[in-house]
Design goal:
alpha/beta; Rossmann fold; five-stranded mixed beta barrel; 9 strands; 31% helix; Nucleoside_phosphorylase_d
Length: 273
Amino acid sequence: MLQKIESTATYIKNRIGDFEPEIGIILGTGLGGLVNEIEVEKQLLYANIPDFPISTLEFHSGKLIFGTLSGKKVVAMQGRLHYYEGYNMQQIIFPVRVMKWLGIKTLFVSNASGALNPDYRKGDLMIIHDHINLQPQNPLIGENEEELGPRFPDMSEPYKLNLIEKALDIAKANNITCHKGVYVAVTGPSLETRAEYRYLRIIGGDAVGMSTVPEVIAANHLGLPVFAVSVLTDEGFPETLKPVSIDDILAVAHEAEPKMTKILKELIAGLDA
């Protein structure tokens, strides 16, 4: 694994020159528009990068974007990988490890998710302060390579509390409805049944999605601080549950994206402080 990471990172470095990103960004379903705010210097297709998994979803672009955002050098994944696409956990977290080898010091993650908390509404944002992993594997299962991180990484603060508080302040200052909650990761790709939504709420979930947690675990293993935000694109309330399509989800994500972008841009701008 370490040899593959180093080889892939070397390939990328040879194509981006002396550009060294300090921030990594993973953009979720329907949330790739943040790229429009980046002063782009280089773009690389996943398909052209050795050992880099290719996003199979038509609404995930599959590009690594290198450039400047809010005065900081960033690398953004425009298109992420999911377990339901058939990838194993090692493949899903591979890009995070490569970004670490490229030089990032902090990881920002976004996703589209379903609301479980009855106080939330679709179109709201939820900053993740903790998670519950219901995906079938932990991405760190297998032989541990000490160069990547410890055998038993601590997960008492998987999402950096200081970044969470700053983001909530930014949301409040801009009159953006933004909650702080617990994200539950499931496999998908089917959406949840009424009974499953009820169960996920009972065990402590505020929102449910099909991504994020493997990458966050890998980032913590690597010693990278993480900030993550969900755009709530549908409502998983058993008593009033209605059919929802991917087109509905994408439409809500597109409408709410400017609010997420506002928070991320200001948070990144003040990162050194």
